[in-house]
Amino acid sequence: MHTLSLEQAAAIVDAALHKARQTDCAPMTVAVLDAGGHLVAFKREDDSGILRPQIAQAKAWGVLGMGAGGRALAQRASAAPAFFAALTDISQGRIAPVAGGVLIRDSEGRVIGAVGVSGDHPEKDEACAVYGIEGACLRADVG
Amino acid sequence: MHTLSLEQAAAIVDAALHKARQTDCAPMTVAVLDAGGHLVAFKREDDSGILRPQIAQAKAWGVLGMGAGGRALAQRASAAPAFFAALTDISQGRIAPVAGGVLIRDSEGRVIGAVGVSGDHPEKDEACAVYGIEGACLRADVG
Amino acid sequence: MHTLSLEQAAAIVDAALHKARQTDCAPMTVAVLDAGGHLVAFKREDDSGILRPQIAQAKAWGVLGMGAGGRALAQRASAAPAFFAALTDISQGRIAPVAGGVLIRDSEGRVIGAVGVSGDHPEKDEACAVYGIEGACLRADVG
Amino acid sequence: MHTLSLEQAAAIVDAALHKARQTDCAPMTVAVLDAGGHLVAFKREDDSGILRPQIAQAKAWGVLGMGAGGRALAQRASAAPAFFAALTDISQGRIAPVAGGVLIRDSEGRVIGAVGVSGDHPEKDEACAVYGIEGACLRADVG
Protein backbone atom coordinates (compact mmCIF):
# COMPACT_ATOMS: atom_id res chain seq x y z
CA MET A 1 0.00 0.00 0.00
CA HIS A 2 1.26 3.45 -0.89
CA THR A 3 0.66 6.45 1.22
CA LEU A 4 -2.10 9.02 1.11
CA SER A 5 -1.53 11.58 3.85
CA LEU A 6 -4.29 13.16 5.94
CA GLU A 7 -3.12 16.49 4.56
CA GLN A 8 -3.79 15.32 1.00
CA ALA A 9 -7.10 13.66 1.89
CA ALA A 10 -8.37 16.76 3.68
CA ALA A 11 -7.38 18.90 0.69
CA ILE A 12 -9.35 16.60 -1.61
CA VAL A 13 -12.47 16.87 0.57
CA ASP A 14 -12.33 20.65 0.71
CA ALA A 15 -11.68 21.03 -3.04
CA ALA A 16 -14.53 18.65 -3.88
CA LEU A 17 -16.93 20.64 -1.72
CA HIS A 18 -15.68 23.89 -3.27
CA LYS A 19 -16.59 22.48 -6.69
CA ALA A 20 -19.98 21.34 -5.37
CA ARG A 21 -20.83 24.87 -4.23
CA GLN A 22 -19.56 26.42 -7.51
CA THR A 23 -21.76 24.07 -9.54
CA ASP A 24 -24.90 24.37 -7.39
CA CYS A 25 -24.95 20.74 -6.35
CA ALA A 26 -27.47 19.38 -3.85
CA PRO A 27 -26.03 19.02 -0.32
CA MET A 28 -22.97 16.81 -0.68
CA THR A 29 -21.05 14.16 1.24
CA VAL A 30 -17.39 13.41 0.47
CA ALA A 31 -15.32 10.50 1.78
CA VAL A 32 -11.63 9.80 1.15
CA LEU A 33 -10.25 6.32 1.84
CA ASP A 34 -6.64 5.12 1.83
CA ALA A 35 -5.48 2.25 -0.39
CA GLY A 36 -6.58 -0.23 2.31
CA GLY A 37 -10.14 1.07 2.12
CA HIS A 38 -10.10 2.83 5.49
CA LEU A 39 -11.54 6.29 6.05
CA VAL A 40 -9.05 9.17 6.24
CA ALA A 41 -11.13 12.35 5.82
CA PHE A 42 -14.85 13.03 5.53
CA LYS A 43 -17.34 15.89 5.42
CA ARG A 44 -21.14 15.88 5.07
CA GLU A 45 -22.79 19.19 4.24
CA ASP A 46 -25.86 20.44 6.13
CA ASP A 47 -29.06 18.69 4.94
CA SER A 48 -27.21 15.89 3.12
CA GLY A 49 -29.23 12.69 3.86
CA ILE A 50 -28.39 10.18 6.58
CA LEU A 51 -27.51 7.36 4.18
CA ARG A 52 -24.99 9.57 2.32
CA PRO A 53 -22.05 8.64 4.60
CA GLN A 54 -22.49 4.95 3.71
CA ILE A 55 -23.06 5.65 0.01
CA ALA A 56 -20.02 7.92 -0.34
CA GLN A 57 -17.82 5.39 1.43
CA ALA A 58 -19.25 2.52 -0.66
CA LYS A 59 -18.52 4.40 -3.88
CA ALA A 60 -14.91 4.81 -2.79
CA TRP A 61 -14.56 1.31 -1.35
CA GLY A 62 -16.03 -0.29 -4.44
CA VAL A 63 -13.51 1.27 -6.83
CA LEU A 64 -10.67 0.11 -4.59
CA GLY A 65 -12.26 -3.31 -4.27
CA MET A 66 -12.57 -3.83 -8.02
CA GLY A 67 -9.68 -1.66 -9.24
CA ALA A 68 -11.90 0.32 -11.58
CA GLY A 69 -13.81 3.60 -11.40
CA GLY A 70 -17.46 3.87 -10.47
CA ARG A 71 -18.58 4.68 -13.99
CA ALA A 72 -16.97 1.46 -15.24
CA LEU A 73 -18.52 -0.50 -12.39
CA ALA A 74 -21.97 0.85 -13.31
CA GLN A 75 -21.53 -0.43 -16.85
CA ARG A 76 -20.34 -3.82 -15.65
CA ALA A 77 -23.28 -4.02 -13.24
CA SER A 78 -25.68 -3.46 -16.13
CA ALA A 79 -23.99 -6.21 -18.12
CA ALA A 80 -23.73 -8.68 -15.24
CA PRO A 81 -26.50 -7.90 -12.76
CA ALA A 82 -26.44 -11.27 -10.96
CA PHE A 83 -22.70 -10.99 -10.33
CA PHE A 84 -23.04 -7.48 -8.94
CA ALA A 85 -25.97 -8.51 -6.80
CA ALA A 86 -23.68 -11.19 -5.36
CA LEU A 87 -20.87 -8.65 -4.96
CA THR A 88 -23.00 -6.46 -2.72
CA ASP A 89 -23.33 -9.39 -0.34
CA ILE A 90 -19.77 -10.62 -0.84
CA SER A 91 -18.56 -7.16 0.16
CA GLN A 92 -21.11 -6.95 2.99
CA GLY A 93 -22.66 -3.86 1.48
CA ARG A 94 -19.42 -1.99 0.96
CA ILE A 95 -19.67 -1.33 -2.80
CA ALA A 96 -21.86 1.03 -4.83
CA PRO A 97 -21.47 0.51 -8.59
CA VAL A 98 -22.22 4.04 -9.75
CA ALA A 99 -20.34 7.12 -10.93
CA GLY A 100 -18.92 9.24 -8.13
CA GLY A 101 -16.28 6.78 -6.93
CA VAL A 102 -12.86 7.69 -8.31
CA LEU A 103 -9.42 6.10 -7.81
CA ILE A 104 -6.56 8.33 -6.61
CA ARG A 105 -3.21 7.64 -8.29
CA ASP A 106 0.18 9.15 -7.46
CA SER A 107 2.64 10.55 -10.01
CA GLU A 108 3.89 7.02 -10.77
CA GLY A 109 0.39 5.72 -11.40
CA ARG A 110 0.05 3.72 -8.20
CA VAL A 111 -3.35 3.60 -6.48
CA ILE A 112 -3.04 5.37 -3.13
CA GLY A 113 -6.72 5.71 -2.25
CA ALA A 114 -10.17 6.62 -3.52
CA VAL A 115 -12.79 9.34 -3.24
CA GLY A 116 -16.55 8.81 -3.01
CA VAL A 117 -18.99 11.67 -3.50
CA SER A 118 -22.77 11.40 -3.01
CA GLY A 119 -25.59 13.93 -3.06
CA ASP A 120 -26.45 14.97 -6.63
CA HIS A 121 -26.60 13.14 -9.97
CA PRO A 122 -23.75 10.63 -10.37
CA GLU A 123 -22.09 12.71 -13.10
CA LYS A 124 -22.03 15.83 -10.93
CA ASP A 125 -20.79 13.77 -7.98
CA GLU A 126 -17.97 12.44 -10.16
CA ALA A 127 -16.99 15.90 -11.37
CA CYS A 128 -16.56 17.01 -7.76
CA ALA A 129 -14.45 13.96 -6.95
CA VAL A 130 -12.16 14.55 -9.94
CA TYR A 131 -11.83 18.25 -9.14
CA GLY A 132 -10.95 17.39 -5.55
CA ILE A 133 -8.22 14.93 -6.51
CA GLU A 134 -6.66 17.22 -9.09
CA GLY A 135 -6.85 20.12 -6.66
CA ALA A 136 -4.55 18.10 -4.41
CA CYS A 137 -2.11 17.60 -7.29
CA LEU A 138 -2.92 13.91 -7.66
CA ARG A 139 -4.26 11.87 -10.60
CA ALA A 140 -7.95 11.00 -10.83
CA ASP A 141 -8.85 7.69 -12.50
CA VAL A 142 -12.57 7.45 -13.32
CA GLY A 143 -11.99 4.01 -14.77
CA MET B 1 -31.49 18.17 12.40
CA HIS B 2 -34.70 19.67 13.68
CA THR B 3 -37.15 18.48 16.27
CA LEU B 4 -40.21 16.27 15.95
CA SER B 5 -41.95 15.88 19.32
CA LEU B 6 -43.54 12.67 20.58
CA GLU B 7 -46.82 14.59 20.74
CA GLN B 8 -46.60 15.36 17.01
CA ALA B 9 -45.47 11.85 16.11
CA ALA B 10 -48.30 10.22 18.08
CA ALA B 11 -50.82 12.53 16.41
CA ILE B 12 -49.51 11.49 12.99
CA VAL B 13 -49.88 7.79 13.82
CA ASP B 14 -53.44 8.20 15.06
CA ALA B 15 -54.52 10.36 12.11
CA ALA B 16 -52.98 7.92 9.61
CA LEU B 17 -54.87 5.01 11.19
CA HIS B 18 -58.09 7.06 11.21
CA LYS B 19 -57.66 7.52 7.46
CA ALA B 20 -56.95 3.80 7.04
CA ARG B 21 -60.24 2.87 8.71
CA GLN B 22 -62.18 5.51 6.73
CA THR B 23 -60.84 4.18 3.44
CA ASP B 24 -61.25 0.47 4.26
CA CYS B 25 -57.56 -0.32 4.14
CA ALA B 26 -56.21 -3.76 5.03
CA PRO B 27 -54.75 -3.92 8.58
CA MET B 28 -52.13 -1.21 8.78
CA THR B 29 -48.81 -0.49 10.42
CA VAL B 30 -47.56 3.09 10.90
CA ALA B 31 -44.08 4.16 12.02
CA VAL B 32 -42.86 7.71 12.64
CA LEU B 33 -39.11 8.37 12.78
CA ASP B 34 -37.24 11.53 13.78
CA ALA B 35 -34.83 13.24 11.38
CA GLY B 36 -32.03 10.94 12.52
CA GLY B 37 -34.00 7.85 11.54
CA HIS B 38 -34.91 6.72 15.06
CA LEU B 39 -38.37 5.46 16.01
CA VAL B 40 -40.60 7.89 17.93
CA ALA B 41 -44.13 6.46 17.67
CA PHE B 42 -45.57 3.27 16.21
CA LYS B 43 -48.81 1.30 16.00
CA ARG B 44 -49.61 -2.00 14.25
CA GLU B 45 -53.28 -2.87 13.86
CA ASP B 46 -54.65 -6.31 14.74
CA ASP B 47 -53.84 -8.86 12.00
CA SER B 48 -51.23 -6.67 10.31
CA GLY B 49 -48.39 -9.05 9.33
CA ILE B 50 -45.21 -9.66 11.31
CA LEU B 51 -42.90 -8.11 8.70
CA ARG B 52 -44.91 -4.88 8.62
CA PRO B 53 -42.94 -3.25 11.46
CA GLN B 54 -39.72 -3.59 9.45
CA ILE B 55 -41.34 -2.53 6.17
CA ALA B 56 -42.99 0.55 7.64
CA GLN B 57 -39.75 1.62 9.30
CA ALA B 58 -37.76 0.95 6.11
CA LYS B 59 -40.13 3.09 4.06
CA ALA B 60 -39.58 5.94 6.50
CA TRP B 61 -35.84 5.37 6.91
CA GLY B 62 -35.26 5.20 3.17
CA VAL B 63 -36.79 8.59 2.46
CA LEU B 64 -34.64 10.15 5.19
CA GLY B 65 -31.57 8.34 3.93
CA MET B 66 -31.97 9.53 0.37
CA GLY B 67 -33.77 12.84 0.97
CA ALA B 68 -36.63 11.97 -1.39
CA GLY B 69 -40.11 10.46 -1.03
CA GLY B 70 -40.86 6.78 -1.50
CA ARG B 71 -42.63 7.30 -4.81
CA ALA B 72 -39.53 9.02 -6.22
CA LEU B 73 -37.32 6.25 -4.85
CA ALA B 74 -39.47 3.62 -6.55
CA GLN B 75 -38.97 5.38 -9.89
CA ARG B 76 -35.22 5.68 -9.37
CA ALA B 77 -35.04 2.00 -8.40
CA SER B 78 -36.69 1.06 -11.70
CA ALA B 79 -34.16 3.17 -13.59
CA ALA B 80 -31.08 1.98 -11.68
CA PRO B 81 -31.82 -1.51 -10.32
CA ALA B 82 -28.20 -2.49 -9.66
CA PHE B 83 -27.57 0.64 -7.60
CA PHE B 84 -30.72 0.11 -5.54
CA ALA B 85 -29.88 -3.55 -5.01
CA ALA B 86 -26.56 -2.33 -3.65
CA LEU B 87 -28.35 0.27 -1.51
CA THR B 88 -30.32 -2.37 0.33
CA ASP B 89 -27.05 -3.88 1.49
CA ILE B 90 -25.29 -0.55 2.00
CA SER B 91 -28.14 0.47 4.29
CA GLN B 92 -28.23 -2.98 5.94
CA GLY B 93 -31.81 -3.52 4.86
CA ARG B 94 -33.08 -0.22 6.18
CA ILE B 95 -34.58 1.16 2.95
CA ALA B 96 -37.74 0.21 1.04
CA PRO B 97 -38.03 2.09 -2.29
CA VAL B 98 -41.81 2.15 -2.61
CA ALA B 99 -44.67 4.60 -2.06
CA GLY B 100 -45.78 4.90 1.55
CA GLY B 101 -42.64 6.58 2.90
CA VAL B 102 -43.17 10.33 3.22
CA LEU B 103 -40.88 13.10 4.51
CA ILE B 104 -42.22 15.37 7.27
CA ARG B 105 -41.27 19.03 6.88
CA ASP B 106 -41.86 21.87 9.32
CA SER B 107 -43.31 25.28 8.43
CA GLU B 108 -39.89 26.45 7.21
CA GLY B 109 -39.46 23.42 4.93
CA ARG B 110 -36.88 21.61 7.03
CA VAL B 111 -37.01 17.82 7.25
CA ILE B 112 -37.92 16.87 10.84
CA GLY B 113 -38.74 13.19 10.33
CA ALA B 114 -40.55 10.68 8.17
CA VAL B 115 -43.60 8.42 8.19
CA GLY B 116 -43.77 4.90 6.84
CA VAL B 117 -47.09 3.12 6.30
CA SER B 118 -47.45 -0.51 5.23
CA GLY B 119 -50.43 -2.84 4.86
CA ASP B 120 -52.38 -2.04 1.71
CA HIS B 121 -51.45 -0.93 -1.83
CA PRO B 122 -48.57 1.58 -1.83
CA GLU B 123 -50.86 4.39 -3.03
CA LYS B 124 -53.31 3.79 -0.19
CA ASP B 125 -50.45 3.53 2.29
CA GLU B 126 -49.13 6.87 1.03
CA ALA B 127 -52.52 8.54 1.30
CA CYS B 128 -52.68 7.53 4.97
CA ALA B 129 -49.18 8.85 5.61
CA VAL B 130 -49.97 12.20 3.99
CA TYR B 131 -53.27 12.49 5.88
CA GLY B 132 -51.48 11.74 9.13
CA ILE B 133 -48.81 14.40 8.61
CA GLU B 134 -51.29 17.06 7.54
CA GLY B 135 -53.54 16.13 10.45
CA ALA B 136 -50.66 17.10 12.73
CA CYS B 137 -50.35 20.47 10.96
CA LEU B 138 -47.06 19.56 9.30
CA ARG B 139 -46.03 19.40 5.64
CA ALA B 140 -45.97 16.06 3.79
CA ASP B 141 -43.35 15.67 1.04
CA VAL B 142 -43.99 12.63 -1.14
CA GLY B 143 -40.93 13.57 -3.21
CA MET C 1 -50.17 -17.49 20.36
CA HIS C 2 -52.90 -15.66 22.21
CA THR C 3 -54.06 -12.26 21.29
CA LEU C 4 -52.93 -8.87 22.49
CA SER C 5 -54.94 -6.18 20.71
CA LEU C 6 -53.53 -2.86 19.54
CA GLU C 7 -56.06 -1.22 21.83
CA GLN C 8 -54.57 -3.01 24.85
CA ALA C 9 -50.98 -2.41 23.75
CA ALA C 10 -51.57 1.30 23.24
CA ALA C 11 -53.22 1.53 26.66
CA ILE C 12 -50.15 -0.10 28.22
CA VAL C 13 -47.80 2.37 26.55
CA ASP C 14 -49.81 5.38 27.69
CA ALA C 15 -50.21 4.12 31.25
CA ALA C 16 -46.49 3.34 31.51
CA LEU C 17 -45.59 6.85 30.37
CA HIS C 18 -48.14 8.32 32.78
CA LYS C 19 -46.34 6.50 35.61
CA ALA C 20 -42.97 7.71 34.29
CA ARG C 21 -44.08 11.34 34.50
CA GLN C 22 -45.63 10.86 37.94
CA THR C 23 -42.40 9.39 39.30
CA ASP C 24 -40.03 11.89 37.66
CA CYS C 25 -38.27 9.35 35.46
CA ALA C 26 -35.67 10.35 32.90
CA PRO C 27 -37.06 10.51 29.33
CA MET C 28 -38.58 7.11 28.66
CA THR C 29 -39.10 4.66 25.82
CA VAL C 30 -41.82 2.00 25.96
CA ALA C 31 -42.29 -0.92 23.56
CA VAL C 32 -45.08 -3.51 23.60
CA LEU C 33 -44.61 -6.77 21.66
CA ASP C 34 -47.13 -9.51 20.94
CA ALA C 35 -46.51 -13.14 21.95
CA GLY C 36 -44.59 -13.67 18.70
CA GLY C 37 -42.12 -10.93 19.64
CA HIS C 38 -43.35 -8.43 17.06
CA LEU C 39 -43.88 -4.75 17.81
CA VAL C 40 -47.47 -3.60 18.36
CA ALA C 41 -47.20 -0.17 20.01
CA PHE C 42 -44.30 2.13 20.85
CA LYS C 43 -43.54 5.63 22.12
CA ARG C 44 -40.22 7.37 22.79
CA GLU C 45 -40.36 10.58 24.83
CA ASP C 46 -38.50 13.70 23.74
CA ASP C 47 -34.75 13.50 24.57
CA SER C 48 -34.79 9.74 25.17
CA GLY C 49 -31.55 8.40 23.61
CA ILE C 50 -31.28 6.90 20.13
CA LEU C 51 -30.43 3.38 21.37
CA ARG C 52 -33.52 3.28 23.63
CA PRO C 53 -35.81 1.85 20.90
CA GLN C 54 -33.55 -1.18 20.56
CA ILE C 55 -33.05 -1.58 24.32
CA ALA C 56 -36.76 -1.38 25.12
CA GLN C 57 -37.58 -3.91 22.42
CA ALA C 58 -34.74 -6.19 23.56
CA LYS C 59 -36.00 -6.12 27.15
CA ALA C 60 -39.42 -7.21 25.93
CA TRP C 61 -38.12 -9.71 23.37
CA GLY C 62 -35.77 -11.30 25.89
CA VAL C 63 -38.50 -12.09 28.41
CA LEU C 64 -40.58 -13.68 25.66
CA GLY C 65 -37.54 -15.51 24.37
CA MET C 66 -36.69 -17.04 27.74
CA GLY C 67 -40.15 -17.15 29.33
CA ALA C 68 -39.01 -15.24 32.41
CA GLY C 69 -38.99 -11.59 33.49
CA GLY C 70 -36.04 -9.24 33.04
CA ARG C 71 -35.17 -9.23 36.71
CA ALA C 72 -34.85 -13.02 36.68
CA LEU C 73 -32.79 -12.87 33.49
CA ALA C 74 -30.40 -10.39 35.10
CA GLN C 75 -29.83 -12.81 37.98
CA ARG C 76 -29.28 -15.72 35.62
CA ALA C 77 -26.88 -13.63 33.54
CA SER C 78 -24.81 -12.95 36.67
CA ALA C 79 -24.71 -16.66 37.47
CA ALA C 80 -23.98 -17.82 33.92
CA PRO C 81 -22.21 -14.98 32.10
CA ALA C 82 -20.76 -17.12 29.29
CA PHE C 83 -24.18 -18.55 28.46
CA PHE C 84 -25.76 -15.10 28.34
CA ALA C 85 -22.90 -13.76 26.26
CA ALA C 86 -23.67 -16.57 23.82
CA LEU C 87 -27.40 -15.79 24.01
CA THR C 88 -26.84 -12.23 22.84
CA ASP C 89 -25.33 -13.64 19.65
CA ILE C 90 -27.76 -16.55 19.40
CA SER C 91 -30.61 -14.05 19.51
CA GLN C 92 -28.77 -11.66 17.14
CA GLY C 93 -28.82 -8.90 19.73
CA ARG C 94 -32.50 -9.21 20.54
CA ILE C 95 -32.26 -9.80 24.31
CA ALA C 96 -31.37 -7.49 27.20
CA PRO C 97 -31.11 -9.35 30.52
CA VAL C 98 -32.10 -6.53 32.86
CA ALA C 99 -35.15 -5.39 34.83
CA GLY C 100 -37.66 -3.45 32.77
CA GLY C 101 -38.82 -6.33 30.59
CA VAL C 102 -42.10 -7.76 31.87
CA LEU C 103 -44.35 -10.55 30.57
CA ILE C 104 -48.02 -9.77 29.92
CA ARG C 105 -50.44 -12.55 30.95
CA ASP C 106 -54.17 -12.73 30.36
CA SER C 107 -56.77 -13.67 32.98
CA GLU C 108 -56.04 -17.36 32.44
CA GLY C 109 -52.32 -16.89 32.92
CA ARG C 110 -51.32 -17.27 29.27
CA VAL C 111 -48.48 -15.11 27.94
CA ILE C 112 -49.93 -12.74 25.34
CA GLY C 113 -47.00 -10.36 24.97
CA ALA C 114 -44.33 -8.36 26.78
CA VAL C 115 -43.44 -4.78 27.66
CA GLY C 116 -39.97 -3.27 27.62
CA VAL C 117 -39.22 0.07 29.24
CA SER C 118 -35.87 1.88 29.05
CA GLY C 119 -34.67 5.30 30.18
CA ASP C 120 -34.12 5.37 33.95
CA HIS C 121 -32.78 2.86 36.49
CA PRO C 122 -33.97 -0.68 35.77
CA GLU C 123 -36.18 -0.75 38.89
CA LYS C 124 -37.96 2.45 37.86
CA ASP C 125 -38.29 1.16 34.30
CA GLU C 126 -39.86 -2.03 35.64
CA ALA C 127 -42.32 -0.14 37.85
CA CYS C 128 -43.55 1.74 34.78
CA ALA C 129 -43.96 -1.49 32.82
CA VAL C 130 -45.95 -3.14 35.62
CA TYR C 131 -48.14 -0.07 36.08
CA GLY C 132 -48.81 -0.01 32.34
CA ILE C 133 -49.87 -3.63 32.17
CA GLU C 134 -52.12 -3.43 35.23
CA GLY C 135 -53.60 -0.19 33.91
CA ALA C 136 -54.79 -2.21 30.91
CA CYS C 137 -56.41 -4.79 33.25
CA LEU C 138 -53.84 -7.47 32.43
CA ARG C 139 -51.42 -9.41 34.62
CA ALA C 140 -47.75 -8.35 34.89
CA ASP C 141 -45.20 -11.12 35.44
CA VAL C 142 -41.79 -9.75 36.46
CA GLY C 143 -40.45 -13.28 36.64
CA MET D 1 -33.09 16.81 17.62
CA HIS D 2 -31.17 20.01 17.20
CA THR D 3 -28.70 21.08 14.58
CA LEU D 4 -24.94 20.74 14.45
CA SER D 5 -23.54 22.40 11.31
CA LEU D 6 -20.69 21.04 9.22
CA GLU D 7 -18.83 24.25 10.01
CA GLN D 8 -19.04 23.51 13.74
CA ALA D 9 -18.21 19.84 13.31
CA ALA D 10 -15.14 20.59 11.19
CA ALA D 11 -13.96 23.15 13.75
CA ILE D 12 -14.28 20.50 16.49
CA VAL D 13 -12.20 18.00 14.52
CA ASP D 14 -9.43 20.50 13.83
CA ALA D 15 -9.29 21.79 17.41
CA ALA D 16 -9.19 18.23 18.80
CA LEU D 17 -6.27 17.34 16.53
CA HIS D 18 -4.51 20.59 17.48
CA LYS D 19 -4.74 19.51 21.12
CA ALA D 20 -3.50 16.03 20.20
CA ARG D 21 -0.33 17.48 18.65
CA GLN D 22 0.21 19.89 21.56
CA THR D 23 0.01 17.04 24.07
CA ASP D 24 2.12 14.54 22.13
CA CYS D 25 -0.67 12.04 21.61
CA ALA D 26 -0.23 8.92 19.51
CA PRO D 27 -1.71 9.25 15.99
CA MET D 28 -5.34 10.20 16.47
CA THR D 29 -8.72 9.69 14.85
CA VAL D 30 -11.61 12.10 15.48
CA ALA D 31 -15.25 11.61 14.47
CA VAL D 32 -18.11 14.06 14.94
CA LEU D 33 -21.69 12.79 14.70
CA ASP D 34 -24.95 14.73 14.63
CA ALA D 35 -27.68 14.12 17.23
CA GLY D 36 -29.06 11.25 15.13
CA GLY D 37 -25.73 9.43 15.22
CA HIS D 38 -24.71 10.15 11.63
CA LEU D 39 -21.18 11.18 10.63
CA VAL D 40 -20.63 14.87 9.84
CA ALA D 41 -16.84 15.38 9.93
CA PHE D 42 -13.89 13.04 10.38
CA LYS D 43 -10.09 12.97 10.22
CA ARG D 44 -7.63 10.15 10.84
CA GLU D 45 -3.99 11.13 11.25
CA ASP D 46 -1.20 9.34 9.42
CA ASP D 47 -0.38 5.98 11.06
CA SER D 48 -3.56 5.88 13.13
CA GLY D 49 -4.76 2.23 13.00
CA ILE D 50 -7.37 0.85 10.64
CA LEU D 51 -9.90 0.07 13.40
CA ARG D 52 -9.75 3.63 14.73
CA PRO D 53 -12.53 4.91 12.42
CA GLN D 54 -14.96 2.39 13.91
CA ILE D 55 -13.78 2.94 17.48
CA ALA D 56 -14.01 6.72 17.28
CA GLN D 57 -17.49 6.52 15.77
CA ALA D 58 -18.58 3.94 18.36
CA LYS D 59 -17.40 6.16 21.21
CA ALA D 60 -19.51 8.99 19.82
CA TRP D 61 -22.50 6.81 18.91
CA GLY D 62 -22.57 5.14 22.31
CA VAL D 63 -22.86 8.39 24.25
CA LEU D 64 -25.74 9.48 22.00
CA GLY D 65 -27.38 6.09 22.30
CA MET D 66 -27.32 6.06 26.08
CA GLY D 67 -27.44 9.81 26.77
CA ALA D 68 -24.33 9.74 28.96
CA GLY D 69 -20.61 10.37 28.44
CA GLY D 70 -18.10 7.62 27.72
CA ARG D 71 -16.54 7.82 31.17
CA ALA D 72 -19.93 7.20 32.78
CA LEU D 73 -20.61 4.34 30.36
CA ALA D 74 -17.29 2.73 31.29
CA GLN D 75 -18.29 2.78 34.97
CA ARG D 76 -21.72 1.33 34.23
CA ALA D 77 -20.16 -1.39 32.07
CA SER D 78 -17.96 -2.43 35.02
CA ALA D 79 -21.01 -2.61 37.27
CA ALA D 80 -23.25 -4.46 34.79
CA PRO D 81 -20.99 -6.44 32.43
CA ALA D 82 -23.70 -8.79 31.15
CA PHE D 83 -25.98 -5.91 30.20
CA PHE D 84 -23.18 -4.09 28.37
CA ALA D 85 -22.14 -7.26 26.59
CA ALA D 86 -25.75 -7.48 25.41
CA LEU D 87 -25.68 -3.79 24.43
CA THR D 88 -22.83 -4.33 22.00
CA ASP D 89 -25.02 -6.77 20.11
CA ILE D 90 -28.24 -4.80 20.58
CA SER D 91 -26.48 -1.82 19.02
CA GLN D 92 -24.84 -3.98 16.34
CA GLY D 93 -21.39 -2.98 17.51
CA ARG D 94 -22.04 0.72 17.47
CA ILE D 95 -21.14 1.49 21.11
CA ALA D 96 -17.77 1.65 22.88
CA PRO D 97 -18.17 2.19 26.64
CA VAL D 98 -14.89 4.01 27.32
CA ALA D 99 -13.68 7.57 27.88
CA GLY D 100 -13.20 9.56 24.69
CA GLY D 101 -16.85 9.81 23.70
CA VAL D 102 -18.28 13.19 24.70
CA LEU D 103 -21.74 14.71 24.19
CA ILE D 104 -21.97 18.10 22.47
CA ARG D 105 -24.56 20.46 23.98
CA ASP D 106 -25.68 23.83 22.67
CA SER D 107 -26.02 26.99 24.79
CA GLU D 108 -29.43 25.83 26.00
CA GLY D 109 -28.10 22.44 27.10
CA ARG D 110 -29.63 20.41 24.29
CA VAL D 111 -27.66 17.49 22.83
CA ILE D 112 -26.73 18.38 19.24
CA GLY D 113 -24.18 15.66 18.56
CA ALA D 114 -21.16 13.81 19.93
CA VAL D 115 -17.42 13.52 19.43
CA GLY D 116 -15.42 10.32 19.55
CA VAL D 117 -11.61 10.35 19.76
CA SER D 118 -9.41 7.27 19.58
CA GLY D 119 -5.66 6.74 19.43
CA ASP D 120 -4.07 7.30 22.85
CA HIS D 121 -5.12 6.54 26.46
CA PRO D 122 -8.83 7.15 27.01
CA GLU D 123 -8.15 10.12 29.28
CA LYS D 124 -5.98 11.81 26.66
CA ASP D 125 -8.55 11.01 23.97
CA GLU D 126 -11.24 12.61 26.14
CA ALA D 127 -9.16 15.73 26.76
CA CYS D 128 -8.83 16.23 22.99
CA ALA D 129 -12.58 15.77 22.51
CA VAL D 130 -13.41 18.31 25.22
CA TYR D 131 -10.88 20.79 23.85
CA GLY D 132 -12.33 20.40 20.38
CA ILE D 133 -15.91 21.03 21.51
CA GLU D 134 -14.99 24.04 23.62
CA GLY D 135 -12.85 25.38 20.78
CA ALA D 136 -16.03 25.49 18.69
CA CYS D 137 -17.79 27.46 21.47
CA LEU D 138 -20.04 24.54 22.41
CA ARG D 139 -20.51 22.68 25.70
CA ALA D 140 -18.75 19.36 26.33
CA ASP D 141 -20.58 16.84 28.53
CA VAL D 142 -18.31 13.99 29.65
CA GLY D 143 -21.25 12.60 31.64
TrEMBL record, chains A, B, C, D:
InterPro entries membership: GlcG_carb_metab_protein, PduO/GlcC-like, PduO/GlcC-like_sf
Family matches, as SUPFAM superfamilies: GlcG-like
Coiled coil: none
PANTHER family per record: SLR1406 PROTEIN
Protein name per UniProt: Heme-binding protein
